[in-house]
Amino acid sequence: MPQFWLLKCEPNAYSIHDLVRDGRTKWEGIRNYQVRNFLRDTMEVGDLGVFYHSNAAPSGAAGIVRISQSRLADPSQFEASAAGFDPKSNRAQPTWLMCEVEFVECFAQVVALETLRAERGLAEMQILRRGNRLSITPLTEAEFDIIGRLGRSFTEAGERGIPAERGQRTRG
DNA sequence: GCCAACGTTGGC
DNA sequence: GCCAACGTTGGC
After folding, report:
1. What are the Cα distances from residue A97, in Å, to A38, A56, A83?
2. Which residue is nearest to nucleotide B8 (CA to C1')?
3. Model confidence over A108-142: pLDDT tens digits?
4. Backbone phi, then psi, for A22, in 5-degree steps?
5. In what order do the strands lie in the sheet with A4-9?
6. A42: DSSP letter
7. Which bases of strand C sit closer than 7 A to a protein CB?
8. Given pLDDT bands bounded at 50, 70 and 90, which one contains residue A160?
9. Do the strands A136-139 and A4-9 form a parallel or antiparallel pair, or are they unpaired?
10. Measured between alpha carbons, how far is A90 from A79 in angstroms, rounded to an integer?
């Protein structure tokens, strides 16, 4: 049984389109203990994730990824010149972990934050809570399915991040 | 650029 | 262990 995640990234730094090009990428640079604990204790290869663009116009869900590697040591914690350098960490017991994600799907348009907020089934989603700052958060399967359905509901006519239809649609 | 919210740091 | 100061995040 896969688990489900929402992974935030600023598209200025790395976007879903970069992942389309690369196929897979290391999700490095996490320096928050709550997120580290997800990476260490919970996330497994085969889990599915929503790729979320933050600090964007519009911010929102941009596509789907799959976890292709888990529990990797983040090498930048050992690099003195790196922004995420952590002099207290050591190679025998790295403090900071990362995962690798592989591309699954790019939505025709970003499902805008405004659209996510309007969806009743997403009311409990952590990303929508005030002050949420975790870059990786768990989703329920129902939340993941709703976001996937919204992402697939765009037609070419829709141009403002507003879904053209919201009919029932099954996953896969 | 503003600002609310939250995490981290460090003095005590 | 408390808590004020500071830094970061991210929507707007």
Report:
1. 10, 26, 15
2. A32
3. 999 999 999 999 999 999 999 988 889 999 999 99
4. -85, -25
5. A24-27, A97-112, A60-73, A48-53, A4-9, A136-139
6. I
7. 8-12
8. very low
9. antiparallel
10. 11
C-alpha to C-alpha distances, A58 to A54, A105, A162, nearest whole angstrom: 8, 19, 11
Per-residue pLDDT for A155 more than 80? Answer: no
Asked if A36 and A125 touch (Cβ cutoff 8 Å), the reply is no
- Which chain B nucleotides are covered by protein, judged by CB under 7 A? 4-8
In whole angstroms, B10 C1' to A64 CA is: 41
Containing A16, the helix (H) or strand (E) segment is: helix A16-22
Q: CA nearest A40: which of A74, A77, A79, A86?
A: A74
Whole-number distance in Å between A86 CA and B9 C1': 15
SS3 A46: coil
Average pLDDT for residues A59-83, to the nearest whole number?
A: 94
pLDDT computed for residue A87 by the predictor: 87
Write out the two tokens for A4: 């489900």
